[in-house]
Structure to design on (122 residues):
């Protein structure tokens, strides 16, 4: 009976360790995703109209995994764009809206780029 108790005590830390390791891996991977996202902020006077226009532009550039959320009075799009289309996409947004890029360097990324577009009032 004593050996079963010792085995249970020894096994418990391993279970916690595996659980913590998995949780830490998930946290690290989510931080990496956030770092790789290109954040674009649009300042507009009409958020619903701008959201409709941005949705059309995303479709023109064949963005994938596009989602839209309304958060705290702003519209937030998330999606993936092919790297070779990203600069043209941003130029098109700049020709229509006041644009602020929060992490403008995308030159060293070799694959599709995860973008977040925040549309908020002026």
């Amino acid at each position: 009976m004593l050996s079963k108790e010792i085995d249970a005590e020894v096994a418990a830390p391993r279970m916690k360790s595996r659980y913590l390791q998995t949780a830490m891996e998930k946290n690290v991977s989510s931080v990496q995703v956030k770092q790789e996202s290109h954040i674009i902020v649009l300042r507009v006077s009409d958020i619903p109209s701008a959201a409709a226009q941005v949705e059309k532009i995303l479709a023109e550039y064949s963005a994938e995994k596009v989602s839209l959320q309304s958060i705290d009075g702003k519209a937030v799009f998330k999606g993936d764009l092919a790297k070779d289309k990203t600069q043209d996409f941003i130029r098109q947004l700049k020709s229509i809206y006041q644009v602020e890029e929060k992490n403008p360097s995308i030159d060293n990324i070799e694959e599709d780029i995860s973008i977040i577009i925040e549309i908020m009032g002026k």
The first helix runs from residue 2 to 36. Helices lie at 2-36, 47-60, 83-96.
